[in-house]
Amino acid sequence: MNNLLPFVILILFIAIQRVVELFIAKSNEKWLKRQGAIEFGNKHYKYLVFMHLLFFVALSTEKVLLNRGLSAVWPIFLAVFMLAQFMRGWAISSLGKYWNTKILVLKHAQVVRKGPYRLLKHPNYFVVTTELLVVPLLFNAFYTALLFTIFNFMILSIRIPEEEKALSMYTEYDEVFRGCHRFIPRIVK
C-alpha cells in the first residue's frame, strides 16, 4: 500500500487542480461571451475532455493492475512535473480573463504576448503534452505514456490549427507571433 500513496497523492493533486481550472474557465467563458466572444472547436472539444478523463482511467488501471512502482529516476520526472505546474500557472495568469479550456475568441482583442507567451505560442499545450508523458513515466506506466502521447498529438493536430485560424481571423495573432514556434521556445532578445 505504501507504493500506492505517492500515486494517490499526485492523482488527487491533479484532479483538484483540474476542477479549479474548470471553475476558472467557466467564469472566464461567461465573461468572454458577455463581451461578444465567438466559440470555435466545439465539435472536437468533447473528445479533448474525454481524452483527459480516459488518461486518469488508463493511468490508474496500468498502475494498479500491473503493480507499477515509482521510476528509479522519479525525482527527475517529479521536477519536470513541478516545472510544468509553474508554467501552467504562469500561462493562466498571463492570459487572465482570456484563458480558457475552450477556444473563445474576442474580435479585435489585444493578443497577449507576455509571460510564457513571449517564448511560445502555446505554453499551456506544451504543459499538457509534458504532463501526459511525465506523469505516467513517473510511475513506470509506459503503455499510458505512449498511448496518450499519440492521442494528444492527434487531438492537438486538430485543435491548434483551429485555434490559430480563429485567432488569425479576428485578431492580430499572425503579426504578434510572427517568427515564434508553437512549441520550441524563442530566445528573447
TrEMBL record:
The keyword Transmembrane helix applies. The keyword Transmembrane applies. GO terms for molecular function: protein C-terminal S-isoprenylcysteine carboxyl O-methyltransferase activity. The chain crosses the membrane at residues 72-91, 133-155. It comes from the Bacteria. It is found in: Membrane. PANTHER family: BLL3993 PROTEIN (PTHR43847:SF1). This is Isoprenylcysteine carboxyl methyltransferase. It comes from Neobacillus vireti LMG 21834. The lineage of its organism: Bacteria, Bacillati, Bacillota, Bacilli, Bacillales.
